[in-house]
Specification:
By secondary structure, the protein is α/β, with parallel strands linked by helices. The protein is built from 13 helices and 22 strands. The strands form 6 sheets. Strands 1, 2, 13, 14, 15, 16, 21 and 22 form an 8-stranded mixed β-sheet that branches. Strands 10-9-11-12 form a 4-stranded parallel β-sheet, covered by helices on one side. It has a 3-stranded antiparallel β-sheet with strand order 3-7-4. Strand 15 (282-288) and strand 16 (296-303) form a beta hairpin. The longest helix is centred in the middle third of the chain and has 16 residues, at 247-262. The structure holds flavin-adenine dinucleotide (FAD). Flavin-adenine dinucleotide binds next to helix 1, strand 2, strand 3 and helix 13. Flavin-adenine dinucleotide is lined by residues 8-14, 31-34, 36-38, 40-42, 44-46, 272-273, 304-306, 309-312, 324, 376-377, 384, 390-391, 394.
């Protein structure tokens, strides 16, 4: 089977690349083993959290950082495309191009963010709290949302909080087994006609407050229920991220996938790329776990298989390696240098990844592979947590590589 581009990995980076290339008329295949980091999504995309203005933060990053390879001018151009791209997919994001705002974490602290899903509660860039008094609600028996942390965090910022738990009879079946009382199961239950009843329960506490805050447990497959719920609640309603799984993150994953398929892309879920055939400095074809000896051929390939978390990178006693093709990786030889003793310090292993040239071509045995690019968290040279740039690198490297590949009409 022959494609213009085959993308390995269907997380944020692979899907953004697939959508952009399909829009250019390319015939694309995405092969994806399974879950992605989006299932753990906070609701906010980070571009660079080192400063109030993300571009000021980006200007301080070293030459090894993927942003330095993309270059300041392209970063500015490509980052302007992110909000419209998600709008096209059906996801509304708030935030402006050149200023970070603050998101509220499940621990109740404020963290810088660049673009946030519209339904989440955020604090403006100046840090002035948008509410004087809020009701913080949980669903009775839901253990992955801690109202006491949220309220403590907000009260420390001068916001008066009242905390309540609401119960819905329809959730009682889930409550009988605490392992069933997870965000995704709640979202599957609280949908359709039940949204009106949920709004009525919320409205019991939606008076005499500036806003109601609740866990992000509505809207697994589309934002319809979220829009309906917000309309029916008497005060502004905002979501706060729960512990994983992330209902809005899973929705983003599904909507990106659906959009990719609508544009003509082929998405093979639950299959893994296991090997590739190289010839004359190029990758000719790949084979997958489920398709045995069938060869999938393409002019170009994008490796978007994620970091250790998604098995895009792996390690053993001999070191860190890229498990599909054995590509060159940037890492440290001495194992004791992979970690810092203080858990909260920047951990060196987090910046390990596949080695690339300035156009994100991968290398094998020191040789550049002409038609294989890497994008997203499989790349080396950045620190998603310390620099707050995880989603930014995933999206912008995908759009950048897509811009290098030809338009087919
Ligand atoms: C737990 C977690 C939470 C995060 N939360 C945020 C956040 O809230 N905001 C933010 O800005 N950043 C966040 N990040 C940073 C994150 O890296 C990016 O936001 C981004 O989602 C990563 O996307 P990706 O496509 O590069 O990789 P991934 O999301 O890891 O996707 C890689 C995909 O490749 C697939 N794959 C791997 N090997 C193969 C194979 N052999 N064959 C086929 N498929 C394969 C995997 O199954 C997976 O679906 C988070 C990171 C982690 C690890």
């Amino acid at each position: 089977m022959k494609f213009d581009t085959i993308i390995i990995g269907g997380g944020l980076s692979g899907l953004v690349a697939g959508i952009d290339l399909s829009r250019k008329g390319q015939k694309c295949l995405i092969v994806s083993s399974g879950q992605s980091a989006l299932h753990f999504f906070s609701g906010s995309f980070e571009l660079c959290s080192l400063a109030d203005n993300p571009y000021e933060g980006i200007a301080t990053l070293g030459a090894e950082h993927p942003y330095s390879k993309i270059g300041a001018e392209s970063i500015a151009d490509l980052s302007a495309k992110v909000k419209p791209l998600f709008k096209e997919v059906g996801i509304t994001l708030k935030g402006v191009k050149d200023a970070n705002h603050w998101r509220i974490t499940p621990m109740g602290v404020l963290k810088r963010a660049w673009l946030t899903m519209d339904e989440y509660g955020t604090v403006p860039a100046d840090g002035v709290m948008p509410w004087k008094k809020v009701a913080v609600l949980n669903i009775d028996g839901f253990l992955d949302f801690h109202t006491s942390y949220i309220a403590a965090g907000l009260e420390a910022k001068g916001v008066e909080c009242s905390v309540h738990a609401i119960s819905m009879p329809e959730l009682e079946r889930l409550r009988m087994n605490p392992t069933e009382m997870r965000s995704t199961n709640i979202a599957k239950t609280l949908t359709g006609d039940l949204i009106g009843a949920l709004a009525a329960r919320i409205n019991e506490y939606a008076h005499d407050v500036d806003a109601v805050l609740m866990p992000a447990v509505v809207g697994l497959t589309s934002s319809t229920d979220v829009v309906k719920l917000k309309e029916k609640v008497d005060r502004p309603l905002h979501f706060i991220a729960t512990l994983p799984p992330s209902v809005p993150g899973i929705r983003i994953q599904m909507m990106l996938k659906k959009h990719f398929q609508k544009l003509g892309g082929v998405y093979m879920l639950g299959d893994s790329v296991v090997s590739g055939e190289f010839e004359g400095g190029k990758l000719k074809s790949i084979k997958t776990n489920n398709h045995g000896d069938t060869e999938f051929k393409a002019d170009n390939f994008i490796l978007a298989s994620g970091s250790f978390f998604s098995k895009g990178l792996a390690s053993d006693i001999d070191g860190v390696y890229e498990p599909i093709f054995g590509l060159d990786v940037d890492s440290l030889d001495v194992r004791s240098e992979w970690y810092e003793r203080n858990l909260f310090d920047a951990q060196p292993y987090m910046s390990f990844g596949v080695a690339t040239d300035n156009e994100f071509h991968v290398k094998k045995n020191g040789e550049r592979i002409e038609n294989v690019y890497a994008t997203g968290s499989v790349l080396s040279g950045f620190h998603p947590m310390k620099q707050g740039c995880g989603a930014g690198v995933s999206i912008l490297s995908a759009l950048y590589v897509s811009s290098l590949l030809k338009t087919i009409r």
